[in-house]
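Entry 12.
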Amino acid sequence: MHGLPIFLFAAIATGMALSILIVAQVLGPKHRTAVKEMPYESGMDPVHSARQRFNISFYLLAIEFLVFDVELLFLYPWAVAAHEAGAFGPGHAVFYAVMGFIGVLLVGFVYTWRKGVFQWN
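Predicted 3D structure (tokens):
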């Protein structure tokens, strides 16, 4: 019985995603051109050699996405376990440890923002 809400959430999310994909296929524009059919890689048109250099911002943005994606993977199970254990009260070390974790990630986010990683040229 404990897994029922998670199953319902996953089922509803999957149903909504599939319905959006189907509606987009049915109602979306279908005008195909040579430019739309051309592959798109890392912000550059694939017309040169495969040994072409890529802008480092692409890689930095991808790493930033992975950091925050992995953060969410850690936070969801922690939040469920902490809620069941009653760890959200003041003075609980678990709560402050996770806030420290989020703080370190926030410092990294601000650093990359100030370096201009999120400005696409």
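Annotation: Residues 53-114 form one domain. The radius of gyration is 21 Å.
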